[in-house]
Amino acid sequence: MNIDYKKNKLILSDVRDFNIKHIFECGQCFRWNREEDGTYTGVIQNKVINVKQNDSDVIINNVTESDIDLIEEYFDLKTDYAEIKKRVDTDEIMSEAIKFGYGIRILNQDEWETMVSFMISANNRIPMIKKVIENLSAAFGNYIGNYRGRDYFSFPDAEKLSKAKVEKIQECKAGFRSPRIKEAAERFLKERDIVYNIKNTSYDDGLAYLKTYAGIGDKVANCVLLFSMRQFDTFPVDVWVRRVMQTLYVDKTTKDVDIRKFAENKFGEFSGYAQQYLFFYARENGIGK
DNA sequence: TCCCAGGTCCTGA
DNA sequence: TCAGGACATGGG
């Protein structure tokens, strides 16, 4: 892969194991939207970024040259996905799932944003989760600018949310999660360093810590660990993963935590990648539904 | 009207 | 420990 910079664009050429639909629609992120021309626009930190793909060329629009490191980190460009696929390709089911979602990459997202986003995901639908996050950003984030006729806002920081009235959070349609979001913001302000250090600590310690937040249970904690803390030996189990696992691997009575442990045992340090291939495969094909 | 959604929390055995 | 219900909100 090569990276060139030209006029607000980063051009990645000869990119392998990279597909924008797979990356942005495999359920790991909520702020990327497909444009009419097939490109995706989203927000990273305080930047609006548009991503276009032509086969093995990927064009990252609306950036400066100094954003190279950020982009490499965010899109996990230094990870060898060919190797990961080899390690996760344990049976025919996984082969099928990997073939289907061949261009999935696990994004390296911000811890705070991921914590709140997945708190919102509890007992909610993906379109609604996206809407609530957009509402919160518009209400409490900073205005970034207009891009292709739409206004964009940064994800609200903890300070702003900690000061917000619960009713105002509720107006963003966060429902019963509203007081939990405010509480999490208050705590995060004091414990920011602990949270940002979880990527350097053990999976077990990180999991235990995250679950002490109201609104973060086993599933959400594992998503946060996987999508923002580079803990890849975790296998979050949601309704889709539960269905596909119960259909294809374990019996119908197996509980979520036991499904997770079964998979973590099977896929080891690559569990998170396996989970993403399976989630995308199950959801796009309605497996178990 | 009822059911359910990338769950979590609380309660009562 | 563990099943069962509540929880905001909106779409099917």
Description:
This protein is an alpha+beta fold and 289 residues long. The chain folds into three domains: 2-78, TATA-Binding Protein; 111-228, Hypothetical protein, domain 2 (Endonuclease III, domain 1, Orthogonal Bundle); 239-285, Helix-hairpin-Helix base-excision DNA repair enzymes (C-terminal) (Endonuclease Iii, domain 2), CATH 1.10.1670.10. It is built from 14 helices and eight strands. The radius of gyration is 19 Å and the shape is globular.
Secondary structure topology:
Layout: E1 2-6, E2 9-13, H1 20-24, E3 33-34, E4 40-44, E5 47-54, E6 57-61, H2 68-74, H3 81-88, H4 92-100, H5 111-120, H6 126-140, E7 143-147, E8 150-153, H7 158-163, H8 166-170, H9 178-196, H10 203-210, H11 218-228, H12 239-248, H13 256-267, H14 271-285
Antiparallel strand pairs: 1-2, 2-6, 3-4, 4-5, 5-6, 7-8
Helix pairs in contact: 4-14, 5-9, 5-11, 10-11, 12-14, 13-14
The structure holds a DNA duplex (13 and 12 nucleotides).
